[in-house]
Amino acid sequence: MKNATIFRICLGVLLSCYWSVAMAVIDNPEAVQAFIERMVTKHHFDARQLQSLLDAAEIKPEILAKISAPAEAMPWYKYRKIFMTEKRIAGGVSFWRQNAQTLSIVSRQTGIPEEIIIAIIGVETLYGERVGSFRVIDALATLGFAYPKRSTFFLSELEQFLILCREERLDPLQPVGSYAGAMGLPQFMPSSYRNFAVDFGHDNARDIWKNPADAIASVANYFAKHKWQKGGGIFIPALADGVAYKDLLSSELAPELSPADLQLHHVSIADDSELEPSVKLLAYEQESGDELWLGLHNYYVITRYNHSPLYALAVYQLAQAIADQYKS
């Protein structure tokens, strides 16, 4: 009886391990085959090598759970608390001091404020402390082959990832990143890496994982290529008389309102010297009502990095807090 019990327990453990492994395999052979054929035809990859590589990729349920509950779904008063912490502000000041020369050069060359570059890296990875622990290939395979809602986007990023690994001579099974496949200190998606990553030190490597100089230059290049306006504003705090302002709110990110639109709907600002021809009215949920801001052109550029008004304001306010403390 004792031996039979032990056998049943061992068999249960073995079956559990078997099903865990089975669950980890990409279970979408038609999509995998179509992807391989496209990579072979379009980019001249070897079909057998790609099949072997995708066989080694794992579907991660944890990734599917995380992408279904993003932080950007929070109200502003909760979201803000994640990023506006003493640790993140102090970390930004320390990062600035450690990389002052690089930041100064890059800011001068691109017109991107040093504190904005730092805040991006601070929001994304806490200055490299949290770059993610998922293999990039697992993240992109999971979301490309097992998350139909956004499979087109993530299969495109998987395509870009494999190309960049070939270009940069990286083993595709080695790079790690976020649950969405974002990489390094600035959390670049593979397409962003290929288009905007910079080899600042001219050592024939665009190392955004371990080289802060490359990460700094890459963030600045991203914003410059997205037409950051040097010396331009980002946000202006606004006030509203009544609730007519709500008619101006929309899910679109780009600035589309004129000063006349604001005046007609009883929205005002303390100083209109930074007002631009087109602005975006944004309402941020506080516990006691909406907090209103006008997003300017450079606000919109920040949303090219992450398509969220919450993200843009968090970066802006963190940048201000870091700059205030650094310069004090």
Helix content: 55-70%
Helical element count?
15
Which whole number gives the mean pLDDT?
92
Order of helices and strands: HHHHHHHHEHHEHHEHEEEHH
Which residues form runs of ≥5 with pLDDT under 50? 1-23
Number of strands: 6
Rg estimate, integer Å: 23 Å
Order of strands, widest sheet = 4-3-6-5
| N→C terminal distance | 76 Å
Biggest sheet, in brief? 4 strands, antiparallel
Strand content: 5-15%
Decide which structural class fits the backbone: alpha+beta
What does the overall shape look like? Answer: globular
What does this structure look like?
With 328 residues, the chain is of the alpha+beta class. It contains 15 helices and 6 strands. The chain has helices at 2-24, 29-43, 47-56, 61-67, 76-83, 86-98, 100-110, 114-125, 136-145, 151-168, 190-196, 212-225, 259-264, 297-305, 309-327, and strands spanning 134-135, 176-177, 235-240, 267-268, 280-286, 289-295. The strands form 2 sheets. Strands 4-3-6-5 form a 4-stranded antiparallel β-sheet. Strands 1-2 form a two-stranded antiparallel sheet. Helix 5 packs across helix 15.
In short:
The chain has 328 residues and is of the alpha+beta class.
